[in-house]
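Just scan my protein:

. . .
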Amino acid sequence: MKIKICGLRRPEDVNYANEVKPDFVGFILSEGFRRSIKLETAMKLKSKLDPGIKAVGVFVNESPEYVAKCLEDGIIDAAQLHGHESEEDILYVKAKTGKPVIKVVKVEDRYVVEAWLDSAADYLLFDSGTGTGKTFDWTVLTEVLADYGGSLPKEFFLAGGITSEILDQAHEQIHPFAVDISSGVETDGVKDLEKMKLAVSMARKYDD
């Protein structure tokens, strides 16, 4: 099971990531969120990031041109679209850059999940909202998974209130390609090295 640690903002956060080596880290590149950072900051952080760790830019209702430029400029390695982006936006970014796109799906019911299974996005990310820090009803996913024989036609990330304490449960019930964790590895609103170590080590138990 892969792991993405989202919401890196400080040089210390990158140092921690380089030490614990998650598969992905996330930079929030849309304004208005607690963990948002400027492009200049993202560039500096990316330059210090271990090249074996993929940097994901998180965007909320940004233009596909802006997303594509961030990818083409090398600020990020993949784009995570967290708003109301369309399938056409996904196709544009992929055609323009050839880089991976993750589409976030707010899980309200099984029909929302199924509507995105044929997307051109490389991955889906199932979440409860935008940085809510809360889990959603996993039974929605387990029911869809059951109908598809235990695995979906597209690999997916599981997000929303993920902590080390529920990683075992996430693997057993959902078996995601990756988990996405942010507040679950923070103390008093900043990334915590020991919590990051624990989360990554637990995810590594389930490496295929």
Q: What stands out?
A: The first strand starts at residue 2 and ends at 6. Strands lie at 2-6, 24-28, 54-59, 78-81, 101-106, 123-127, 156-158, 178-181, 186-187, 190-191. Residues 78 and 100 are 5 Å apart (CA to CA). The domain at 2-204 is CATH 3.20.20.70 (TIM Barrel).
